[in-house]
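hi!! sorry for the late reply, been swamped w classes. u asked for the two structures so here they r. pasted raw, havent cleaned anything up. first the sequence of the first protein and right below it the tokens
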Amino acid sequence: MEIINYAQEIGATTYPGRGIVLGKSKSGKYAAIAYFIMGRSTNSRNRVFIEQEGGIRTEAFDPSKLEDPSLIIYAPVRVLGDDTIVTNGDQTDTIYDFMAQGKTFEDALRTRTFEPDPPNYTPRISGIVHKNGDYQLSILKSANGNPDSAQRFFFDYNNTPAGQGHFIHTYKCDGNPIPSYEGEPTWVEITTDSLDEFTDAVWNALNEDNKVSLFTRFIDLETGEVQTKIVNKNV
């Protein structure tokens, strides 16, 4: 597998959907996290990220235009002890609750499946970053659009070298229905130790018409100090 610049990969399609980047900054000083959402419908685009209890949640930008909150209003990022959980749906809460009971990331996600939004059956993507910078990613998806078969994939990354990470997103590309992401998370190069530069590169790579909100975070792997940025198209 060839390593690819994270911004280049994010911008490779007009509609990657929702995406997670996890890895380490250029020097390895920081654990790096990015989570973005996009939208094609008015309901999906009518959102912002706001901070909540060390993490974030989505909120309707204009409550009067909110149609169906079930799949678009959730907490994408939650913090449990030294672990940071990031997902594209309410499975964040499932992971948090299971791990609070001493169970695992995998235990939680084996109780979940893809989103009930035919004909797309949007995958559920999830990640977790640990205190030492190790991380896991997962995708739960239908079998090539067949809702009778759920597929669950888990990926563990230990001792990731400085300046490297992995990127997973919900959709392979735009379409109707929208094809689900395929294969392993993409191996990406993270080329900066600046959260501002990291954030700007991700935001600027996203398709201008479809991007909605972005969350980024650097966690100092020595001190645990956290830097966070949120960018909302709706302001």
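now the second protein. again sequence first, tokens right under
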Amino acid sequence: MIFEQKDGDIMNLESPIGVFDSGVGGLTVLNELISRLPFENFIYIGDTKNSPYGEKDNDTIASYVSNIVKYFENKGVKQVVIACNTATVNSSHLINETNLDIIGVVQPTALKAINTTITKRVLILATSATIRNGIYQKLLSEQKINAFAVACPKFVPLIEKNMLNTPESFAVVKEVCEPYKDLKIDTVVMGCTHYGLLANEIRQVMGNVNIITSGEATYYVVKDRLKKRNLLNNSQKHGEIKLLTTGSVEVFKKSIGWFKNRIDALEHVSLE
């Protein structure tokens, strides 16, 4: 799920970084990247027309991923960040489809959880597709960590409708997490980039646990790869932030009231 760019391609320092998710959840990763890499230009795609990915079959998800990466390739991005766990675990085919440098969120997020837990008991909250893939369970069990993996199909619709900190969100999170609150779990992995937005609800049920989200963990990999390839933008000028959605711009705008970074453009895009 992490592919280095193949030899022979020359990139411009000011070329944008492409970031994508099935919807608005990947903006949590973009938030972190903008904060820590303020001089980079970013293009973000929220594939809201096809959201949620987590309840679809693997071949369908892989086709969505291919279409988005092809779009980024045509836009000349210097790196792609798959800010979606479900898309990450359905991206291995890209190694035969593109020369782009691609970073997924799963491995950095799992590594952070491994380095954080003390009790060696970790709750993984993710989409049905990510849980079905089993990648988080595999990575954690290899380090002798007891992983409890739970599919949460009700989470993304709540977040896409901006229903955070509502009676509905607290009820849904309680239903999912309460069976695990007395199992000495000290770390909860947000195995979907949307889920970090429910951290308040999760802590209310699980108590004082470590919440592992993808943004910070992924940033370190992104910076390291850009630096290794001599592609860190050193212009000292704040980069352009462009958001694209495959669905309704108005609906997208209403669902990202929590996103506090500057937005230079918010537009519809067709990938078909």
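hope this helps!! also noticed smth abt the second:
The mean pLDDT is 93.
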